Structure prediction request, 262 residues.
Amino acid sequence: MKIIAIANQKGGVGKTTTAVNLGHALAEKDQSILIVDLDPQGNATSALGMQELESENLYEALLGDESIVDKILPTRIERLFLVPANLDLAGVEVEIARMSDHLTRLSKTLSILRDDQTFDFILLDCPPSLGILMTNALAAADELLTPIQCEYFALEGLVKIVRVVEQVRGSGANDQLEIGGIVMTMFDGRTNLSGQVVADVREHFAGKVYRTVVPRTVRLSEAPSFGKTILEYDSGGAGAYAYRALAREFLKRHSSPTRLPG
Ligand SMILES: Nc1ncnc2c1ncn2[C@@H]1O[C@H](COP(=O)(O)OP(=O)(O)O)[C@@H](O)[C@H]1O
Ligand SMILES: [Mg+2]
Prediction:
């Protein structure tokens, strides 16, 4: 089992879109997937059409009052599970900040799932700010998957993330953390800019960057308003194609057996 933080301190780069659609594409490939919505905005929760269950969030589990196991909900999609989020989660930051182990609360909350190996991958859909929730995600994760929008300043954003990863390692909260992958999103084939940005990022982060590039499509932006993943909403379209390709590449990178005992 691997815990993947889908993280970028910038908002609107495709974190939630990637969590939900990569999650579905991996489930389609027989993987057991848990998406943990860590953003008080609850976008992953509503993108899966589950906002009416949003009160079943991580709050009590993070404080140690309840087990995360009781917060895991099945989705419509086979093998895809969700721990929802809503605005309550914003309040937990204040509560956690008072605790001596405030950096590792999420890691401890998830440890039961590490032990029982029910899931192949846990995808943490991180909030955009570098607050306590995101820091907890980085402390709990085996690696980062960082979506980068094909826009100006993509490289500057990545350099900041690299620095954050180094800080988390240096803090002792998680000395194993690494950037496992970078996925370029919202690629617009009609502009030179998109191509140039992808080329720049590849030049600096060669092996990290996924070959699959997610195109900008209206369908991908429409799907969440119907509470559907792109694989449900437009299964034959370019967005679904890209996220299925990303899932294949992701599994190839993580091809070591994940279900071995211990
Ligand atoms: N490839 C894409 N093409 C078009 N729109 C996209 C694409 N990826 C994301 N979006 C839209 O862009 C906005 C931001 O994406 P989102 O995944 O919510 O970013 P984040 O979670 O990083 O804030 C959302 O409205 C989403 O539907
Ligand atoms: Mg988001």
